[in-house]
């Protein structure tokens, strides 16, 4: 798969990146040229003390700068959707995946985010974008990037609640009980979530033969939930693999007809740079790997349910 993606990058993604890179350089050259021209006009005007001439010459320059600003914003706006759609086209070719849909300006609703059971917050400042939906086997899913903040109580300003990827997977049949998986080092921060889950009958459990997973994660389940049925070894290994590759710790809640998961990230994936080259396979490959590992979690959910 990895070699195939490299080939796909060379034949399909790189040409698009190269076209976008030429556009970026052209816009920056125009911006630099207009900057030099503006300084020249101001210098000549001040030396000759001709304020009217300065105003006359600067008006079209201001209009041109405004146009350049819009063009640069359009470049940033179009870059990520074009590249993400190409990566999804590559992933689509896998046999168990239906067509994946990408809507860059759409996001997961705040209502769904709060109903997941993975947060106890009002999320006063909530933003979501880069919405991807699809179906893997019998499991329908939707995911998006989310940044949520809440008021900081007695202190002024807000504090970060979550930044990263949120997904919901919907099963074709309901499961009994509920299971919560959280990073062990996040136990204090997620204390309210654990208490809320335990009020529904949740109890901590330890997985047999999964020592490394138990060191990194805590599992709680309601009494009517079957760990062996609802949490497979392969699913736990997928979560552990995601942690080992990204150094970010997912949290998962499986209940009723679906599963919610959050995958924190401190990176702005595939956000284009304006003042340096975007022709870097490593950054595209990192996004592909992260997305592919996330889809593997959903694929494992399909096998379990």
Your description of this structure?
The protein is of the alpha+beta class. The protein has two domains: 2-92; 101-304, no CATH class. It has eight helices and nine strands. The protein has helices at 2-48, 51-92, 110-115, 191-198, 211-216, 227-230, 233-246, 281-304; strands at residues 101-103, 125-136, 139-151, 158-170, 178-183, 202-205, 217-222, 251-255, 258-264. β3 (139-151) and β4 (158-170) form a beta hairpin. α1 runs antiparallel to α2 (51-92) and α7 (233-246) packs antiparallel against α8 (281-304). The longest helix has 47 residues, at 2-48. The chain is elongated and about 85 Å long. It starts with a helix and ends with a helix.
In one word, what is the shape?
elongated
Please, how many domains? Answer: 2
Integer-rounded radius of gyration: 25 Å
Side-by-side strand order of the widest sheet: 1-2-3-4-9-8-5-7-6
Low-confidence stretches: none
Helix/strand-derived class? alpha+beta
Number of helices: 8
Helix content: 40-55%
Secondary-structure element pattern, one letter each? HHEHEEEEHEHEHHEEH
| Share in β-strands | 15-25%
Distance between the termini: 26 Å
Give a count of the beta strands, DSSP E runs of length 2 or more.
9
Mean pLDDT: 87
State the major sheet.
9 strands, antiparallel
């Amino acid at each position: 798969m990895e070699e195939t993606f490299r080939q796909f990058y060379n034949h399909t993604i790189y040409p698009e990146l190269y076209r976008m890179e030429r556009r970026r350089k052209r816009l920056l050259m125009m911006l630099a040229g207009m900057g030099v021209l503006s300084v020249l006009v101001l210098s000549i005007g001040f030396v000759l003390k001709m304020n009217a001439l300065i105003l006359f010459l600067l008006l079209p320059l201001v209009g041109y700068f405004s146009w350049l600003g819009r063009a640069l914003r359009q470049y940033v706006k179009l870059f990520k959707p074009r590249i993400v759609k190409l990566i999804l086209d590559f992933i689509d070719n896998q046999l168990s995946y239906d067509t994946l849909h990408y809507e860059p300006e759409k996001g997961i609703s705040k209502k769904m985010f709060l109903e997941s059971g993975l947060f106890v917050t009002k999320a006063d400042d909530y933003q979501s974008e880069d919405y991807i939906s699809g179906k893997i086997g019998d499991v329908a899913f939707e995911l998006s990037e989310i940044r949520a903040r809440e008021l900081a109580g007695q202190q002024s300003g807000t504090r970060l609640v979550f930044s990263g990827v949120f997904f919901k997977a919907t099963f074709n049949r309901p499961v009994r009980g509920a299971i919560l998986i959280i990073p062990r080092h996040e136990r204090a921060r997620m204390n309210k979530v654990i208490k809320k889950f335990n009020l529904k009958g949740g109890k901590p459990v330890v997985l047999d033969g999964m020592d490394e997973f138990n060191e990194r994660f805590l599992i709680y389940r309601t009494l009517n939930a079957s760990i062996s049925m609802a949490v497979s070894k392969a699913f736990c290994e997928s979560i552990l693999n995601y942690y080992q590759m990204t150094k970010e710790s997912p949290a998962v809640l499986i209940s009723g007809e679906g599963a919610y998961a959050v995958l924190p990230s401190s990176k702005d994936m595939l956000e284009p740079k304006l003042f340096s080259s975007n022709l870097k396979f490593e950054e595209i490959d990192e996004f592909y790997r992260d997305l592919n590992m996330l889809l593997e979690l959903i694929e494992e959910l399909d096998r379990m349910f």
